[in-house]
Amino acid sequence: MWSPSGEEVGGLERADWMPPQIALFHPLQMRIWDGVSDQMRVVDAFEDDVFVTLRLQHREAPDETGEATINREFGVVTEYRDAATEILLTNLHIDL
Questions:
Q1: What is the pTM assigned to this prediction?
Q2: Alpha carbons 8 and 10: distance in angstroms, whole number
């Protein structure tokens, strides 16, 4: 299966798997919803007028945590981090 580094990526059992950089634009496709092949799960959530922040916990290693921040206006994840990954989406705007 494809990975940015070209190395083997484990746990790609889900037919809807996509690289995490693309999954930012499809939050429900991210591997954080405690599905059978998901590595993370949501354990708490906070919201304000602009963002929803999800606190994440690794399913098999509870000490490993992370966060996903969703922009409410655009419906995309603008920041994701866990023990191995940190992705920041910047300069998000719509030109009509």
A1: 0.77
A2: 6
